[in-house]
Specification:
Helices cover 12% and strands 31% of the residues. A hairpin with an 8-residue loop joins strand 3 and strand 4.
């Protein structure tokens, strides 16, 4: 371990890494960074309290490598997340970004609806959701009380997380509401959260992942179980009160280091299942003489909120240091697949850890529709990937196929690991991906950034999705990143680099280089668009409490949305209340149409009810309510089905969800769907 690390740092300490430039962007679009002081974006991540431990090590002078690796704290500059939500109900996407102790979390209000062009303004006091005192990590949102606006959960280390109820554009802290378990103080270290209705009562429940005490890396390097923490599941009891059912729900079957979570119906049985991203750490897997602990764990729901761990029987037996998720149908077969980030292969070789090429590669698992996932392994065109944290499924070029964005990096102590400055994977529609380097040419110097939270959505309303990311720490611009002198090859090899924070002294010890690390910042990468491809957006609206038979939460989280374009295939994506890492994408389902001009939308709601809307035109933003009348099942008669539709649409129109014209359109589509199915 010492030999490899020393030779890497000494031999290349003066060599700058160069990013190779692709000739043309694969999707015909590029990204540019909007997050500059000139545009009013001045976010800087406040370090965590544990930075004092890192500073103490720096001032010691010479430190042996073992001490440096073990005692250098994890994420001492923080673990920020980002959420894209319309908090003020004006129809455009705003940004919420978490920060460290003593600094307000940042809420940027989008003024697109007011001014007709995209700009952001910082909202004072984060509109009541500043969480100034806590070391905030992950964030997720959803309408927990079904009143029509998004509420926020902001996680915090070593204390209470904050649950905020949105009251029409201003948040109030309901964390300590009497009779609720979610706001209680704890000594845990949460990373990510997600919202979904796990028991089918129409209310959003909350899953929170936990890790270990970040003061040292003992849980990663030394002790595999006792120092890890249990995850938590909170059931929404109504009235904004939550009950901790972790111990009885089946999700606390094992202690793990869990960085990410995604909640969706993987097996199509109408209820919400849970995926968690867990960390093997540096403890060797069974294949290398150790034992396995770092899996993507899959918890299957029985429909009532009780879960069974089906990891071993579902094909998810590949170990890794997993961090975050992107979920969509990547191969076009109509089932939901997922991509999970990993730490990459470069750092394994740097520290002399046993591995084979591809062991620590971020990877996608393809759903066979029978309850089993296939590990695709190492894509021959990509080879091994770099370090990843946040990820998102995004059709960034609107060609009708879901692509993947994944960013990452890690302050490991001796080095700042930068093997993945920016990863944008272009999909051919069959889950064959190529790295699109040129799409980011000229966006920002990502070699210095350690991005954690990643979220996507259309910020400027041009029909092309944008990328927002936040870093915990950045390298000084005058100290260049160093190209890795080794590695598995492939397109990532040209961008993989590291920043040597500590310099080997020749006697087995290391000394701090004296070069400071800088606070993390926000990046807002706007999509240029302009490639001629069309698009459609779908906003799902659950109608529990609106229609007599409505069962879905107001956001429609848990629904699966499909768009079939004329002359093309069908794209499928879930509505997720949090995934990526510590972050949440826009809740709008975005579909690229390529050159097609129209198609049909089908929504499969949680519980299994299917609705359709025909003749959806390119550029439409469809508000799609749950009509609790499934066109695909057997009815006593067409008249009975029509009566169900008419009653539900009447209730929906009365509630103001649809106007008269929209109601007539959904009625005609509902009857057409029935006629085509019977």
């Amino acid at each position: 371990m010492n030999r490899i690390l020393v030779s890497a740092v000494v031999g290349l300490a003066l060599a700058a890494a160069a990013l190779p430039l692709s000739a043309q962007p694969l999707g015909g679009v590029t990204f540019h960074n909007f997050a500059t002081p000139e545009n009013g974006i001045t976010y800087q991540r406040e370090p965590s309290a544990t930075k004092a431990l890192a500073d103490e090590l720096r001032q010691r002078g010479r430190v042996d490598l073992g001490t440096l690796l073990l005692d250098y704290p994890v994420k001492s500059y923080g673990a920020p997340g980002v959420a894209l939500l319309d908090y003020d109900g004006d129809g455009d996407l705003d940004l919420y970004v978490t920060n460290g102790p003593g600094k307000d979390n940042a809420l940027y209000r989008n003024r697109l609806a007011e001014d007709g062009h995209f700009s952001l303004e910082l909202v004072p006091g984060a509109a009541g959701a500043a969480a100034t005192e806590q070391d905030s990590t992950g964030v997720c949102f959803g309408d927990i009380d079904n009143d029509g606006d998004p509420d926020l959960l902001v996680l915090g280390r070593k204390g209470s997380s904050h649950l905020y109820e949105n009251q029409g554009g201003h948040f109030i802290d309901i964390s300590n509401l009497a009779g609720s378990d979610i706001g209680r103080d704890s000594d845990l270290d949460p990373a990510s959260c997600a919202m979904a209705d796990v028991n089918g009562d129409g209310l959003l429940d909350i899953f929170v992942t936990h890790t270990f005490d970040w003061k040292s890396k003992a849980a990663i390097i030394v002790e595999p179980w006792a120092l890890s923490e249990y995850n938590q599941l909170f059931i929404n009891m109504g009235g904004n009160r939550f009950k901790d059912v972790s111990a009885t729900s089946g999700i606390q079957n094992i202690r793990n280091i869990t960085w990410g979570v995604a909640m969706f119906d993987y097996d199509g049985d109408g209820d919400i299942d849970i995926l968690t991203a867990n960390d093997q750490g540096t403890i060797p897997s069974f294949h290398y003489g150790g034992f396995n602990r770092g899996f993507v764990r899959l918890y299957q729901n029985d429909g009532k909120g009780h879960f069974t761990d089906v990891t071993a029987t579902s094909g998810l037996t590949k170990t890794g240091d997993y961090m975050g998720f992107a979920v969509a149908d990547f191969d076009g077969d109509g089932t939901l697949d997922f991509y999970v980030t990993n730490i990459g292969d470069w750092i394994m070789e740097l520290f002399g850890l046993p591995y084979a090429t591809g062991d620590m590669t971020s990877r996608w698992f393809l759903n066979d529709g029978k309850g089993h996932f296939r590990d695709v392994g190492v894509n021959p065109e990509l080879g091994a990937s770099g370090w990843g944290w946040g990820a998102s499924a995004i059709d960034y070029d609107n060609d009708g196929n879901f692509d993947i964005v994944s960013y990452g990096g890690y302050d490991a102590g001796p080095i700042v690991e930068r093997s993945n400055p920016r990863s944008l994977l272009h999909n051919d529609g069959h889950a064959h991906f190529r790295l699109d380097l040129a799409a980011h040419d000229g966006s920002l110097d990502s070699r210095r950034r350690n991005d954690h939270g990643v979220a996507t959505g259309d910020l400027n309303g041009d029909g092309f999705e944008d990328i927002v990311s936040v870093s915990d720490v950045e390298g000084a611009p005058f100290f260049p990143a160093i190209a890795y002198p080794f590695g598995p090859g492939g397109p990532y090899q040209g961008t993989a680099s590291f920043i040597p924070s500590w310099i080997p002294q020749g006697d087995g010890t290391f000394q701090w280089s004296g070069v400071p690390l800088l606070p993390g910042t926000l990046a807002i990468e706007l999509n240029s668009g302009g490639n001629g491809n069309n698009w459609v957006n779908v906003q799902t609206v659950g109608t529990v409490g609106i229609t007599t038979g409505g069962h879905n939460n107001r956001d429609g989280i848990g629904a699966v949305v499909r768009f079939t374009r004329v002359g093309g295939g069908t794209a499928t994506q879930p509505i997720l209340g949090g995934s990526s890492h510590a972050s949440e994408d826009s809740l709008l389902a975005h579909f690229g149409l390529a050159k097609s001009r129209r198609g049909l939308v089908e929504v499969q709601w949680q519980g299994g009810v299917k609705n359709r809307l025909y003749s959806v035109q390119a550029g439409e933003k469809v508000r799609f309510p749950e009509i609790p009348c499934d066109f695909s099942i057997k009815w006593p008669s067409r008249t009975a089905y029509t009566a169900c539709v008419d009653k539900a649409l009447g209730e929906i129109q009365t509630a103001g969800v649809l106007n008269v014209t929209q109601t007539a359109r959904f009625r005609a589509s509902a009857l057409q769907a029935y006629d085509q199915s019977h």
